[in-house]
Amino acid sequence: MSTATNENITETTSAASDELAAHEVKLTDVAAGKVRSLLEQEGRTDLRLRVAVQPGGCSGLIYQLYFDERLLEGDAVRDYDGVEVVVDKMSVPYLSGASIDFEDTISKQGFTIDNPNAGGSCACGDSFH
After folding, report:
1. Helix, strand or coil for residue 40?
2. CB-CB neighbours of 124 under 10 Å
3. Helix H segments across 1-129?
4. What integer pLDDT is reported at residue 82 of this predicted model?
5. Residue 56, C-beta contacts closer than 8 angstroms, at least 6 positions apart
6. What span, in angstroms and rounded, lies between the C-alpha atoms of 103 and 112?
7. Which residues, 6 or more positions from 64, have their beta carbon under 8 angstroms from its beta carbon?
8. Nearest to 102 by CA among 41, 22, 28
9. What ranges make up the beta strands (E) of 17-73?
10. Following DSSP, what letter does each residue of 92-126 receive, concatenated?
11. Collapsing DSSP states into helix, strand and coil, what is residue 34?
């Protein structure tokens, strides 16, 4: 097992995760901690964080973040200190190089996605193209 840390992001790789395709979505340590906390609240250790891009929204594409117990054919997986992040094969190119963080401030609370592939977004900020 090896661990690499870069810009508040800790990634752990193991033999099990090496068998599946990997993706280039990053999960910050803060976001990984929040995911762990949510999973503990649910009492579930079998869930993964799935990130996907779906058609919809004002600008054409929307992000989906949800917990999933399934691994589907073609899924790409990376483990961040015990938090598995899964991206379906159709979403991988749209999310390459994206970073997921969690903000908890007086003005905003929630997960954020910084995606270098997004050409623009709508005024509400919920979709991109």
Report:
1. helix
2. 9
3. 15-18, 29-42, 92-95
4. 92
5. 62, 127
6. 7
7. 50, 51, 52, 53, 54
8. 28
9. 26-27, 48-56, 60-68
10. HHHHTT-EEEEEESSS-EEEEEE-TT---B-TTSS
11. helix
Residue carrying the six token digits 């929307």: 62
| Contacts with 75 (C-beta within 8 Å, 6 or more apart), sequence order | 20, 21, 86, 87, 88, 89
Question: Do 1 and 14 meet the contact criterion of CB atoms below 8 Å apart?
Answer: yes
Return the SS3 of 89: coil
Q: What residues contact residue 9 under an 8 Å CB cut-off, 6+ apart?
A: 26, 27, 28, 29, 80, 99
pLDDT tens digit at each of 129 positions of the chain: 444 444 555 544 444 444 667 889 999 999 999 999 999 999 998 999 999 998 876 667 888 999 999 999 999 999 999 999 999 999 999 999 999 999 999 988 999 998 887 766 555 555 554
C-alpha–C-alpha distance, residues 76 and 18, integer Å: 10
Integer CA distances (angstroms), 127 to 12, 68, 72, 120, in order: 30, 22, 25, 9
